[in-house]
Amino acid sequence: MRIITVGLIPVLLLLSATFAYPHKGSKVELRIIPDRGGTFLTIPFEEFKKGNTSVIKKYLEARKSENYTILIKNKTPDRIGVVIAVDGRNIISGKTSYLKNNERMYIINPYGSLNLEGWRADLNTVNRFYFTDEEDSYSVRTFKDSSAMGVIAAAVYKEKDRPREHFKKRESKKNTFRAPAAPSDTRDSKSLEGESAGTGYGDDTYSPAVRVHFNPERTPIEKILVKYEWHDVLCNKGILKCGEKKNRLWDDYGFAPPPPEYVTR
Known about the structure:
The protein is mainly β. The protein is built from two helices and 17 strands.
């Protein structure tokens, strides 16, 4: 699932990066940014260690038809590689992702950040992410795959000793890493929210990338998993407390309690 291999070194993708200040805590910061402004409600779920990998799980309240961007900031002084999957599909290749180190990944410079806006179509174009019903999602419409529906996942890999650049730049055939296009867009025909939220294959947008060498370590240092759901689903699962708010005067059907230390005669 690598783009090109020179020796043992995968040739991967790099987007132009802006720089962020380092923070304590996890190795990366991952945020889901809505196009319409504001923020998505995010609820921490659990954090644990699995071998040498820190795992962070969160819930996110999705908004129907909202385009979104995955923002990732590198908090370390080293280059890192990040495998990113949406609904179980690698966002560069469109292939089934298990967040492994042999998959296509984005490279982030020390203390840099990336804005990932969609499914990679070629070195200059992505098709936008947007929240939609499961049936309209890229994963289901294109691959009939709902095995990891509603999950935005990132696996962070450290780089092995960087080799010296003694190779000639190779040109590959156009779109050799392209994510397969989804069927014609039907997002406007969806009127009811399904039980599960998914991510669609939206409008294309300019997003330049270049190929670079990166040799990842075998296991990730961190995984971040964001499970996004519609508001009603989060309520039904008890992730959000969505019961009706009581009126302190109208809804009190109790009786007058006795004062403290009152003795019944």
